[in-house]
Amino acid sequence: MYLVFTTNDFPWLTIIVVFPISAGSLMLFLPHRGNKVNKWYTICICILELLLTTYAFCYNFKMDDPLIQLSEDYKWINFFDFYWRLGIDGLSIGTILLTGFITTLATLAAFPVTRDSRLFHFLMLAMYSGQIGSFSSRDILLFFIMWELELIPVYLLLSMWGGKKRLYSATKFILYTAGSSIFLLIGVLGISLYGSNEPTLNLELLANQAYPVTLEILFYIGFLIAFAVKLPIIPLHTWLPDTHGEAHYSTCMLLAGILLKMGAYGLVRINMELLPHAHSMFSPWLMVVGTIQIIYAASTSPGQRNLKKRIAYSSVSHMGFIIIGIGSITDPGLNGAILQIISHGFIGAALFFLAGTSYDRIRLVYLDEMGGMAISIPKIFTMFTILSMASLALPGMSGFVAELIVFFGIITSQKYFLISKILIIFVMAIGMILTPIYLLSMSRQMFYGYKLINAKNFSFFDSGPRELFLSISILLPIIGIGIYPDFVLSLASDKVESILSNYFYG
Amino acid sequence: MEHTYQYSWIIPFIPLPVPILLGAGLLLFPTATKNLRRMWTFLSIFLLSIVMIFSLYLSIQQIFLSCIHQNVWSWTINNEFSFEFGYFIDPLTSIMSILITTVGILVLIYSDNYMSHDQGYLRFFAYMSFFNTSMLGLVTSSNLIQVYFFWELVGMCSYLLIGFWFTRPIAANACQKAFVTNRVGDFGLLLGILGLYWITGSFEFQDLFEIFNNLILNNRVNLLFLTLCAFLLFVGPIAKSAQFPLHVWLPDAMEGPTPISALIHAATMVAAGIFLVARLLPLFIVIPSIMYIISLIGIITVLLGATLALAQKDIKRGLAYSTMSQLGYMMLALGMGSYRSALFHLITHAYSKALLFLGSGSIIHSMEAIVGYSPDKSQNMILMGGLTKHVPITKTAFLVGTLSLCGIPPLACFWSKDEILNDSLLFSPIFGIIACSTAGLTAFYMFRIYLLTFEGHLNTYFINYSGKKSRSFYSISLWGKEEDKKLNRNFGLVPLLTMNNTKKASFFCNKTYKISNNVRNQTFITVENFGLNTRTFYYPHESDNTILFPMLVLLLFTLFIGAIGIPFNQEGIDFDILSKLLTPSINLLHTNSQNFVDWYEFLKNAIFSVSIALFGIFIAYCLYKPFYSSKLNLTLLNSFKKWSSKRIRWEKPINFVYNWSYNRGYIDTFFKKYLTESIRKLAKQTNFFDKRIVDGITNGVGITSFFVGEVTKYIGGSRISSYLFLYLCYVLIFLMILFFFYFEKF
What we know:
The structure holds two protein chains of two kinds.
Chain A: H1 2-6, H2 12-25, H3 35-60, E1 69-77, E2 82-88, H4 90-109, H5 117-136, H6 140-161, H7 166-193, H8 203-207, H9 213-230, H10 239-246, H11 249-274, H12 276-300, H13 307-328, H14 331-362, H15 378-391, H16 398-412, H17 418-447, H18 465-483, H19 486-505
Antiparallel strand pairs in A: 1-2
Helix pairs in contact in A: 2-3, 2-5, 3-4, 3-5, 4-5, 4-11, 4-14, 4-18, 4-19, 5-6, 5-11, 6-7, 7-9, 7-10, 9-11, 10-13, 11-13, 11-14, 12-13, 12-17, 13-14, 13-16, 13-17, 14-15, 14-16, 14-18, 14-19, 15-17, 15-18, 16-18
Chain B: H1 2-6, H2 17-28, H3 30-36, H4 38-64, E1 69-76, E2 83-89, H5 91-114, H6 121-139, H7 144-162, H8 169-200, H9 205-218, H10 223-240, H11 249-252, H12 258-267, H13 269-279, H14 281-284, H15 288-308, H16 315-336, H17 339-371, H18 375-378, H19 392-406, H20 412-427, H21 429-454, H22 462-468, E3 476-477, H23 485-490, E4 494-497, E5 508-510, E6 524-525, H24 545-560, E7 568-570, E8 573-575, H25 577-581, H26 599-624, H27 632-641, H28 647-662, H29 667-716, H30 720-745
Antiparallel strand pairs in B: 1-2, 3-6, 4-5, 7-8
Helix pairs in contact in B: 2-3, 2-6, 4-5, 4-6, 5-6, 5-12, 5-17, 5-24, 6-7, 7-8, 8-9, 8-10, 10-13, 10-15, 12-17, 13-16, 13-17, 15-16, 15-21, 16-17, 16-20, 16-21, 17-19, 17-20, 17-24, 19-21, 19-24, 20-21, 20-26, 21-26
């Protein structure tokens, strides 16, 4: 038995992908005895899954190998060569671990959910599978299927457990993302059917394929639209504030922590790896769009009255750094983008969690109605302050390292002229000034002052052990990465080099 | 000895356990942590004293054998980029770390008592220790990235500490303002660092200087770009050290607890900007234009800070503007290239200003018991006065600090300020004149603060006092003097304050319009407004020993710290500790006379500067010395009579200067009106754009498709004939297209 677990042939990834959803469907057979059973069952599944993932990656993943590892290849549909093909490399291992971590914590955060908790938890687990599946699939059609699988739970979670305008935002979300999926599907089919009678769905084979320039650009645009909605890139971002504003905060954690990262992952995985020529053509535009996005979202954010929408715009603004990092086509830039994916996964999730918990207490959404909460909930205040500092890229936290490396990537980029580099860096740095304005004024409006002291019903409980544990366990990796970024950088650096080698010799 | 250097990386880490443990303890085990209470204070003081001993040892070694020690470790290893962390010990570092630790320890001792009744006692100590850690990290950093790292951390500590009393809305606004303003500086600093990296390919100080000098010598780089980068780098110090356009945060930062103002906003953090410029001086010095900009900004700040300090009611704000002005002196000295005098002034000013702030804290502490805890009252100089009787020790300490800052000979600031004034006269006559006249202004406003606070009678109970004199109505001038009606009859207007006549004369006066017996206008605050009608009068008490002890130690420092810069004649060679420490550093102005001090020259300059200071003190004394306690003023006031014909002419400029100072030079208003409002407007507009246009298109598409659906439903109407009709239409269109293509082909 022990031998089985240590050999490479053991289907680790299949188990990791399938386990949550299958365990989730077993929840139907659980005795119907209230929410408690469901909650604990789901948490156990999540923790088990996280441990399993960590164990598998610890023992079977070699850091210095840029190739696919833990790969699995099972024929699924014979006649068009469709395989159940999984595998991870340096790019996906970070995001998979992030998924495990955030989903576990989101399940923990969803403790107060009582309505239909069985369905809720099942959907969480289904989402878990979908996300890990899309991060680990090595087959482009499988990637698409997992991508779609992941949307349905989000839609349901949004439309059933959201706020007042939940139906509007859920519809908006599904229309946006499903609409963009059409482009993804077109791209997938086009790219796989090009040039041969048999469809090629294997990502490794596709990576070595060359296309005519116009076709490559068309594919690129198709994929870009799909990922731009998910990431989001302006002007396709408007689903995000609505969705985040209405969703339950555990869903928000998943959305901000992982779902947005799927767009970034897709951009690197498909647009950069498969379509290098088109990418080097489009990258200046990506940089421009990214810079505009940073400024645009950062200046839209202070205008929001809704607390969660303000944080949502801050995530949009931070996604700009990822776009710029991807667009810079340099080693530091791409590393920075990957680090930003991980770092924002933690920070965004934590901020939404804290916003949600404070909302649970004060029951007010609009910032200008709040005030003076620091007196009664000092712990949440402390955590919120620390995390908004992390979000505005305070050194010693992960956001700073990511942004610094992205800056560094632009500086060292050989591709652009000096003037354009200066301009882009300058505008990005203006975003650096705008970020504290909205984050700190948010924290000031919520916590500082004494406004609500005299109001009635002004006695909240401070965060209990569960909430404290949750926020501290998100905080620790943030500080850990900030102090020693090699934790994450070393995972992806070899893969990044191998991706970029296409650009210099190709 | 190598051993000591090897272990010096530990300097910033020694105080680190306290904030970590305290933070974790407060979050996880609040009651247990709070029970330990004073143990934490002892621990943090103990750890900081270890650092102090260590850095003392280091600097003693530096005196005998001046050398630079550097060691780096890699932080991130990657093929394409690598960042390094390390430490860099040179005389500048050791001086700064001694400064930080000594002031830090004293302030910690002080705040044990000052904050003892505060709920956030432990939180305060956690922040303070974290500040000490990051400040020590800043001064020992070996490359620019590390400097930026700690630079921001220091700014964050300042943010947290300014907003320490978070229930006060003013404090909440002030801390956000401080952070955002500092962030503007960080923006420049980061861009400058990146630009320099692009030019030289290094972050390390020494490599940077070397490559930079080579590039300049070989003229291989665009000078404009270089100047731009250097200027952007300088924006960081502008914000941190509260220099001219970005100084707005410093006076507001006084909302924080007073120990913070002493440690962070007077002695250490604001000096970080000076430190960075001093550290990068080898880089700035090769670009003359940037040196000129530095000195220009310095001199603007000197003058602006001094003029703004003239009319402050709040004792801490007055001191804050004075800090700003003194920082301007340091920046000026650096811009002139006199590294030594800038650092000398940094040291002496840090101790003197810390002493003054701690003194003001002690006063505030005493006043709080009487007038209440609102900073509007407890820090209001109008309500003080006559505290000499009640708080004699504080008074002595405050007086020594004031005299030192004015530049009266045996005290610390005299030596350093004198050097800067000399150098500025050598550098450029205009700068010299401005700097010297500002020295007079400094003396004036410092003594104004002193006299208002300690002389005369306690104004809080002024009603009572006036009752004895059976006056029906009294008002206290904001400018600090009680008006006697009898005198008012003689002079309709009393010019209260005269400036140095020889220079740009600026007269300050409180306008006293006689409008039907009422002697009031905006400059007057009537005591009745505060409505303190209590029968029993409490008088302020001297603070506890734990508050007095740090002040006395700082008093000693203020008395004797000047000695490190005074040349001793030893075996025919002039020798002073500071020069010995800073031998390898740069001095532009005295290249030849480094080891040769002309005593005649020195005496001449000293007498000149002291006489300016004395003149300022004299005027302050004349104008703020309370009337009823001295008859001397009557004669003086009679002499003003001669001017009474001229005074109308002066009214306008006086008003202008008064308003200028009272409204903080309109700079805050300007920023508020144009910057804050424009950002708000921008936010509103982008929000509108986002909501109506970007989102509007999406929603529009949704609504359109809905209507199209409705229309087709209506048209369709489940009738076979209409379906057939539509079907035929489509077929027809298809056929037409086919037809056209067919014809085109042939």
